[in-house]
Write a structure and sequence with these properties.
globular; 480 residues; alpha+beta
Amino acid sequence: MININWNFDNTYEMLPEIYFTKVSPEVGSKPKILYVNKDLADSLGLDYEGLLEDGGKIFAAGKPINEASNIAMAYTGHQFGNFVMLGDGRAMLLGEQITPSGKRFDIQLKGSGRTPYSRGGDGKAALGPMLREYLISEAMFALNIPTTRALAISLTGDRVIRQKSLDGAVLTRVASSHIRVGTFQYSAYAGDNNQQREFANYAIKRHYPDILNSENPYLELFKEVVRKQASLIAKWQAVGFVHGVMNTDNMTISGETIDYGPCAFIDKYDPDTVFSSIDWQGRYAYKNQGPIGAWNLARFAESLIELVDESRERAISLLTQELEKYEELFNSAYYKEMTEKIGIENYTEEDKKLVDSLIKFMEVNSLDYTNTFVDISNKDFSKDIYKKDDFKLWQKSWEKRLQESGKTERQIEDLMKGKNPRLIPRNYWVDLAIKDAEGGDFTLFEELFEELQKPFDYSREAGKFKEVLEDVKIVTYCGT
């Protein structure tokens, strides 16, 4: 018997039944494991070889795991500003793996079949979108950005019908939990006061146990999530990541990035950048991600009103006071990230101007966002664009500031190279790698994946993956 070292708990199933539905995965006709993330498997205490041998049957054919719970979670959400009833329409929570260090992580299957929340969908997933999430979520982890992770991809052996017939696949996703702002919205919508309180207490105990016995734990929960999201979205901005679909059901209370549907990274700097085919109004454009974070948190605040204080008026006042701190928290986190990208710690107001003027120079001259910061990290100003007077003026001010910092050149270089990735998952290469893989050739996908695991290793040559191709417009889709 294969021993994979599962160590499951099922605390979510102890909540009132309005929060989930028991489900069973659909069985793939020819299940096969495609990829197992060895580093992640090791950190979870799972046997890598066992997963390679038995993972396909477990993840794509419903082979039972002792103590697995198999539930679909209920939630709602504001999608592009409109409130809708949702839930895990193609996902299933197996349970919570307890790691050797005592940490708890959800193990979820994505693409495992229909659930009561499928809303007419088939509950399945195509290989391409699952490869995209596997690639980009692990790239985000390597970029030191809080994120859900990908443990495995399995092929089902069945076809999935979208615009055309595609290979079916299941992604095994790992998260500190799958509790979303939308889950709290659902709780406020569907639960009575006791159920809301029980659910909120569970979330607090799971993610912020230190506040459970505070004077007002629900207000403290809001404070924590505001802080986490301000930090997370600032990190997105710093690497040029565009999530693409920042609905409230795609905002976790843990502060992890979740749901890599129509996401992408900007190449040429343009604050209006939108990649999603469905975001024709630009609601979730790069420049709007910070403000949308505040909008989503306002919806989170609304779901906590009844818990924060018996007086609705006082509860709204308390929550509003905390929400109003978001902008300052976000800006502070953003400028910390950005000034460190140009070698400055403990930034001042003048340092913010250095960042803003550099970003404006990138925008006016349509410079590649990532490669410009790589050039600055290497102090390589050989390109003609850096001979412009306005850049030379910026460079002079920047170098003067670095001299005043008291840091050595090596310290400054190390700081910049620890913040500026030498490469990102460029849209063109991600798209090409996935298309090749869909055709059966995984060579480029595996090469790209390997490079993206070491984004800050400047001893490696980024090669073709650093290239910026002119006039290539990538439109992404929320793959289902």
